[in-house]
């Protein structure tokens, strides 16, 4: 899929998605995969990590991705807002269950993965921590750390929080297998399956041929704290692998 400029995306109507370029940012990759699953047409633009991205800031008010915009509605950048927009645009292929108990489960688990101080947030803190412990974090790392409110107290808890969330996800998937279901919640695919498939890359990065990361970024993704690596149940990885190539396109567009 061809990337267009931010200014081109801003001037278009319809659905537009801004992705982080060069790295498999799971928030954006999950949104993209859900758009494709729902059969939605969209234009794709890129945000440069560590760059000023002045056009994006002028349009969306933030220097982060993903950003999703629909026609003249204000651009969105929060995972839940994006999910509810996609549900509104393509309700015929729902990713939120109608059953209220299942719906609450999907949204609760999704927040544990995508939300502030969730699985992805804590993994990001762990990625920043070695640079700060060195005493000389590079300026791009400092910029990103400020954006995501890096602090030593949360960084010290990041591994423990990742382990707890991975344990919770593995227990849920095992409980579903005992109910003869191959999905995280209920009897069919939900947004939660898409989020996990995208976020698993932060813990078990796909090969370069499937996930073409920009040069220099891969070693950062490949280092995992031993306790976190031990908590990554093979069932979770197998679930990601089953979804990749079927519900999520390979190679990933980054």
| Morphology call | globular
Q: Helical proportion?
A: 40-55%
The appropriate CATH architecture of the largest domain is Up-down Bundle
Distance between the termini: 10 Å
How would you state the average pLDDT, rounded? 94
Number of helical stretches of at least 4 residues = 12
**CATH topology of the largest domain, which one?**
Glutathione S-transferase Yfyf (Class Pi), Chain A, domain 2
Order of strands across the widest beta sheet? 1-3-2-4
Report on this structure.
By secondary structure, the chain is of the alpha/beta class. The protein folds into 2 domains: 3-89, Glutaredoxin; 100-243, Glutathione S-transferase Yfyf (Class Pi), Chain A, domain 2 (Up-down Bundle), CATH 1.20.1050. Helices cover 52% and strands 7% of the residues. It has 12 helices and 4 strands. Strand 2 (15-20), helix 2 and strand 3 (42-47) form a beta-alpha-beta unit. Helix 2 crosses helix 9, helix 5 (100-114) packs parallel to helix 9 and helix 9 packs across helix 12. The chain is globular, with a radius of gyration of 18 Å.
Care to give the gist of this entry?
The chain has 254 residues and is an alpha/beta fold.
Question: Can you give keywords for this protein?
Answer:
alpha/beta; Glutathione S-transferase Yfyf (Class Pi), Chain A, domain 2; 2 domains; 4 strands; Glutaredoxin; 4-stranded mixed beta sheet; globular
